[in-house]
Amino acid sequence: MVAAVKAYSEPAHISRLNSVGIVHRHYMHFDTPLRLRSGVELTPFTLAYETYGKLNADRSNAILIFHALSGDSHVAGYYSSDPNEPAGWWDEAVGPGKMFDTNRYFIICANVIGGCQGSTGPASLAPDGKPYALRFPVVTVADMVEAQRSLIDALGIQRLFAAAGGSMGGMQALQLAVDYPDRVGAVLFLASTPRSSAQNIAFNEIGRQAIYADPNWRGGSYYGGEVPAAGLSVARMVGHITYMSEFSLESKFSRRLQLRDQLGYSFDTEFAVESYLKYQGEKFVQRFDANSYLYITKALDYFDIGAGYDSMAEALKQVTAQFLVISFSSDWLYTADQAKELVDALSGRSVEYHHVEAFLGHDSFLLEVETMTRLVGGFLDRLYDEQNLREAG
Amino acid sequence: MVAAVKAYSEPAHISRLNSVGIVHRHYMHFDTPLRLRSGVELTPFTLAYETYGKLNADRSNAILIFHALSGDSHVAGYYSSDPNEPAGWWDEAVGPGKMFDTNRYFIICANVIGGCQGSTGPASLAPDGKPYALRFPVVTVADMVEAQRSLIDALGIQRLFAAAGGSMGGMQALQLAVDYPDRVGAVLFLASTPRSSAQNIAFNEIGRQAIYADPNWRGGSYYGGEVPAAGLSVARMVGHITYMSEFSLESKFSRRLQLRDQLGYSFDTEFAVESYLKYQGEKFVQRFDANSYLYITKALDYFDIGAGYDSMAEALKQVTAQFLVISFSSDWLYTADQAKELVDALSGRSVEYHHVEAFLGHDSFLLEVETMTRLVGGFLDRLYDEQNLREAG
Fold first, then answer.
1. Among partner residues B195, B266, B274, which is closest to A201 by beta-carbon distance?
2. Nearest residue of chain B to residue A200 (CA atoms)
3. Residue A3 confidence (pLDDT)
């Protein structure tokens, strides 16, 4: 069978039987205003999105995956047959036989509003033909969800089988279940928090201050000129540390020197961990817009699912979705205690909570593929069987 | 009695019976070269230092306190009678009846070489009459200790009763015991690590990158012009988060807004934690030199007491000092595991190790005054009694 696949001359990495293969980014344009929580209306707006698998006849098998801070709509597969092109950011999760099984589900992922990967954001042209820059309105997680609600409307999907996400993706899935309880059957809330803590806000603010401090930032109006690369790079480095555990940094780098055998007694990059961070910063600058970093971190800081209610439990009263909540022992960005706050507030509902012993920090939700496949796949299988039984019964 | 003290018309904060009162910064100039680990010689050099209490006749009651990254020689007391002047950085620890009891001990603290509070550093004038800037040689923790060894020589102290420090101060105390085993009776190693971890280096590197990214930094040659305030401020904010626990940030600020009742949907400083961090950054810029921040963090990164030996235990073989090691449960900068690595390597020696349950993170060593007074004071009392017994015996 493998030989037969190879006979199609697909590059090796695409010939893998469980890859979604080559995919395309789609765009949906909306002329209707997006009413933001700030009271401002954004018109028009565009969402970039991708889909994997097939929507079934009764449109009941759709799963909306929400991406995290630096993510985009490209969850899985490849845009080209170039063998050097990396797969989508959660390729291990989406494909035939994977935890989000494209043989069974229709997977959708859209770039968030405020982002910079095809959806309308600060780098987009405003109605006056010039980039919004800081004229772009401040958006919230609820606004990101509202935009994507328009997308599932446009795709003709009344009720999602599930909404899923890690990190900021989990926040959006939760927000959807609160704002549109009858439109989502289940929420997969992974390595996330129902509200940003003081420490979460603090790290985001440092990233923003690093961007503000870059003279190329020019109050956000740098489009067409030099971008605030140094500031964004520092912001990314700060963020990156919070995604890794002390253990993962130590086991990957320890005190290893990058190029030499002995200390150089200079300010050159010497330790491997310095080189790695610098590389992460530089790579990020190539693909991400600094203003989007400001807007999205601001949305993260604003996120508090209980805001405006007497308690978090009160905010969740009308939620009907079944929940899968997963936290990771070494995740110090969104800790087990934060996940538990949601689990407690959902008390009495259908909630499956797993605290996974994992060494790789916040990124464990992407890296612990075997455990995640078992937990996420198992949860979805049970939901699927339940639903089919309900329909058969 | 209190009334009698007040009769001297001292300001209230100085009239406290257990304050060291008004103190002065002293300077010691050295024309002999300081031989650095890099092979470079630094000539001349100056150390700024302060002392509290009285050196006894046989010069056996001296305790050298080493300061941390952003500290200086001003451990305790006041420089003036201005009632608004804050006390030295560890005033709770040094004074009559305090954990470092000035009725009994002669306390010395010197600003580190490479620093910016009176000791020779990158802002000092080089022999050519211009500031060193980045021409200042890279210094190590061992070099800081070597400079201070010259100071205790000059003060006529052959053997220190103890060497003590928190954070980078603990590293120096340990280094002294390794390099000069016969010159120190005890080491108090508080909230410190025997070697910087990959995560420690990563955070320091981000601070440095923030400084490098500030165009006012100008490769370090900013003296006489605008200082790289924005970069240093971001570096300080990053550092500051690592000194606090998630708990201390959450209990101090949570999601409290600074000025308003509701979200402002703008990039103004909104959350109290943002305002606090910004204030910490701005305050630091007033008192600290960005190049010193580079040099001292580099020294921290280089610190590994076992470097050049087969094992850490091997490096510590000739150490004769008795050890007090204290770690704090919420200290995620220098963790209990890091302290335990030293304790393990000292196996078979006289080591008293305490792991303190404390909520305030790395800064616990400064803030948990009652516990520290009990542990540090108790340890020193026992040493003192032992020594007096030995002399009497």
1. B274
2. B246
3. 32
